[in-house]
Fold this sequence. Notes:
3 helices
Amino acid sequence: MMINRLYVACLLLMVASGALRADPSAGTNFYFVQITDTHWGSREGLEVTKRVVELVNNLPFKVEFVAHTGDITADQISNTNIVSEGLRSMS
């Protein structure tokens, strides 16, 4: 399951890394990243999120913003400290 989530996260990073021109006449690129379905509340979801944040931070261009969508927390949160740790990893 973790490999599938990491694969989807990497795929989203690749798609989001395509140039989106805010103003075609300006000749500047506008980049954003969407992270989805992190499922914080389990150790697996947190580890995938940390890896995705690392990948985003190492992109070769400036990211204007990150949209965090989907299921951010797990249905059954086994450890609420994991959710807090997830929030810290995003900053």
